[in-house]
């Protein structure tokens, strides 16, 4: 009789190699007791930030803001994508305002006088100024109207930044 494993079985230890079509035989190993009882990964509570705390080239921001204005920059039909839309929206909270670059479906969410929550937003630089953007890993949610007054005197997108190389002295 042959000592080679039967075709279609995996005789190694631990999990089978990914994408090989092998399936585990027998019961799965017990999950570690570090998470919730149902095996789902525990979610962290979001840490909300304010507009005045935003810095260039940072990411993972969660903030609540009110849309002040929205201006369509690009609206053109595309053969393979359907329609491409880009809008610049000025949003703010009680600490300041910042420009948001909204793309496609995001343009419909950012209507003037609505309150939105930006989750996992990032700061992109455009001509030396900050723009808040939400890519495919983030989310924009329309929420209940906020009770804060927007501080329009502190526009973070009007501050110009310059990338400077710092030579280290030896």
Automatic annotation (TrEMBL):
Signal peptide: none annotated. Residues 1-40 are annotated as: Disordered. Residues 54-142 form the Single-stranded DNA binding protein Ssb-like OB fold domain. Residues 31-40 have a biased composition (Low complexity). This is Single-stranded DNA binding protein Ssb-like OB fold domain-containing protein. It comes from Sorghum bicolor (Sorghum).
């Amino acid at each position: 009789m042959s000592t080679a494993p039967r075709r279609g079985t995996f005789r190694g230890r631990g999990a089978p190699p990914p994408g090989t079509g092998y399936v585990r035989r027998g019961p799965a190993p017990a999950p570690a007791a570090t998470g919730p009882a149902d095996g789902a990964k525990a979610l962290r509570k979001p840490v909300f930030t304010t507009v005045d705390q935003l810095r260039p080239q940072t990411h993972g921001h969660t903030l609540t803001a009110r849309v002040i204005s929205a201006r369509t920059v690009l609206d053109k039909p595309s053969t393979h994508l359907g329609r491409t839309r880009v809008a610049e929206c000025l949003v703010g909270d009680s600490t300041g305002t910042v420009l948001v670059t909204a793309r496609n479906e995001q343009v419909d969410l950012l209507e003037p006088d609505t309150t939105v929550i930006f989750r996992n937003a990032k700061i992109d630089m455009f001509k030396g100024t900050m723009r808040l953007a939400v890519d495919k890993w983030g989310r924009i949610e329309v929420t209940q109207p906020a009770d804060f007054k927007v501080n329009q005197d502190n526009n973070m997108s009007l501050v110009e930044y310059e990338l400077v190389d710092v030579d280290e002295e030896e």
